[in-house]
């Protein structure tokens, strides 16, 4: 829990930060609240920018820290569920009576570190600390993000068109909760394409982790939503190995990998009472549990984007990712 000393220091820091943040460029907040600010190249709500500064000032990285990092709507909920099930499988091995059957994955892990650090003394947490984050890698202190860092990052990304469509739906749900008129698909696409989206630009966010994963694969595990959908067991094993918790032969024989895959699948989680009930609020984000589950498909963008819109997005993606070795299957196609 927070110590009063830590809170005092933060209160002083925050006054100074407020003044500095007020001078930064502002951009559209799709959720309809206070505008985002452009902080070190990324568009963040003010509270998250403050969180970044507090991470720099107060977080002492530990070799055992694991950051579960995502660009929003790329598979955060899924990654949290999988990581929780993998890490806690010795204490939660009964898959008929598992915390994920009665709690939303967001409620089983810490809130986003950039929000959490604002109110709680993170140094009092026991190791290993598993911290979710939506921050770009470059926003973390060098002591955490550099190739020589002992910290590990697990990053999941998703093709930009599905990410965009998922974010547009989600933000309009938030607007409805606040009784703000919906954001049109066209306006959202214009904003996304210019990089002005929650934690965006999307492409810069993804590339930061991609490049780091090539330079230091032991520090950064780079996963794609589409790969996980296609071969979940393969990537659950990879994730467990990366976390230094590989499945034993005995576990393999017992089918634990498949049990985790099934437990964390969209089909299973989205049909649970806890994730369907609109009245349950998620502590971390203040939104309904059901908002994190929509279709869970690859290629749903084709039901929303015109060929022109899809083409424009593809062109940006090709330009941004050219020469990096990163690409996404372009399935489905407009013929
Ligand atoms: P967040 O970053 O705000 O926490 P996140 O979980 O990344 O959200 O994104 C939600 C998307 O993941 C939704 O995609 P859709 O809008 O295209 O449907 C949601 O349906 C999908 N999703 C949630 N849980 C799972 C899961 N267990 N497996 C696959 N997809 C999932």
Would you write up a description of this structure?
It is an enzyme of class 2 (transferase). InterPro entries: P-loop_NTPase (IPR027417), Sulfotransferase_dom (IPR000863). Pfam families: Sulfotransfer_1. Belongs to the sulfotransferase 1 family. One of its GO terms (molecular function) is sulfotransferase activity. The strands form two sheets. A four-stranded parallel beta sheet has the order 5-4-6-7, with helices on both faces. It has a three-stranded antiparallel beta sheet with strand order 1-2-3. Helices cover 47% and strands 9% of the residues. The protein is globular. It has one domain (29-321): Rossmann fold. The chain has 335 residues and is of the alpha/beta class. Residues 70, 72-78, 81, 162, 166, 169, 264-266, 269, 292-296, 300 line the site of 3'-phosphate-adenosine-5'-diphosphate. 3'-phosphate-adenosine-5'-diphosphate (PAP) binds next to helix 3, helix 8 and helix 15.
Question: Quick gist of this model?
Answer:
By secondary structure, this protein is of the alpha/beta class.
Q: Which secondary structure elements does this structure contain, and how are they paired or packed?
A:
Layout: H1 4-22, E1 26-27, E2 36-39, E3 42-44, H2 46-58, E4 66-70, H3 76-87, H4 99-102, H5 105-108, H6 113-116, E5 130-133, H7 142-145, E6 152-157, H8 160-177, H9 185-193, H10 202-215, E7 220-224, H11 225-230, H12 232-242, H13 249-254, H14 256-263, H15 266-270, H16 273-276, H17 307-321
Parallel strand pairs: 4-5, 4-6, 6-7
Antiparallel strand pairs: 1-2, 2-3
Helix pairs in contact: 1-2, 12-14
Bound molecules: 3'-phosphate-adenosine-5'-diphosphate.
3'-phosphate-adenosine-5'-diphosphate binds near residues 169, 265, 266 and 295.
């Amino acid at each position: 829990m927070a110590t009063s000393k830590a809170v005092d220091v933060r209160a002083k820091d925050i006054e100074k930060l407020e003044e500095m943040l007020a001078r930064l460029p502002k951009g559209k907040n799709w959720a309809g609240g206070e505008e985002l600010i452009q902080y070190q190249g990324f568009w963040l709500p003010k509270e998250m920018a403050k969180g970044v500064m507090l991470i720099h000032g107060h977080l002492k990285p530990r070799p055992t820290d694991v950051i579960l990092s995502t660009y929003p709507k790329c598979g955060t909920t899924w990654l949290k569920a999988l990581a929780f099930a993998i890490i806690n499988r010795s204490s939660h091995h009964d898959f008929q009576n598992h915390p994920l059957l009665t709690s939303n994955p967001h409620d089983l892990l810490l809130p986003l570190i950039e929000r959490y650090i604002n109110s709680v003394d993170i140094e009092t947490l026991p190791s290993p600390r598993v911290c979710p984050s939506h921050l770009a890698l470059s926003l973390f202190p060098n002591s955490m993000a550099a190739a020589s860092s002992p910290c590990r990052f697990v990053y999941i990304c998703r093709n930009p068109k599905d990410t965009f469509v998922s974010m547009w739906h989600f933000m309009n749900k938030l607007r409805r909760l606040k009784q703000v008129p919906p954001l049109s698909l066209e306006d959202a696409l214009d904003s996304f394409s210019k990089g002005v989206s929650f934690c965006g630009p999307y492409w810069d966010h993804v590339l930061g982790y991609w490049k780091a994963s090539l330079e230091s694969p032991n520090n950064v595990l780079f996963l794609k939503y589409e790969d996980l959908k296609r071969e979940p067991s393969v990537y659950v094993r990879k994730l467990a190995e990366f976390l230094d918790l590989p499945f034993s032969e005995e576990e393999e024989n017992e089918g634990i990998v498949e049990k985790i895959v099934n437990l964390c699948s969209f089909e299973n989680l989205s049909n649970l009472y806890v994730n369907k009930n609109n009245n349950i609020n998620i502590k971390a984000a203040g939104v309904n549990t059901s908002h994190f589950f929509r279709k869970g498909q690859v290629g749903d963008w084709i039901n929303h984007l015109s060929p022109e819109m899809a083409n424009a997005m593809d062109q940006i993606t090709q330009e941004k990712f050219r020469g990096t070795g990163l690409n996404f299957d372009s399935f489905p196609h407009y013929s």
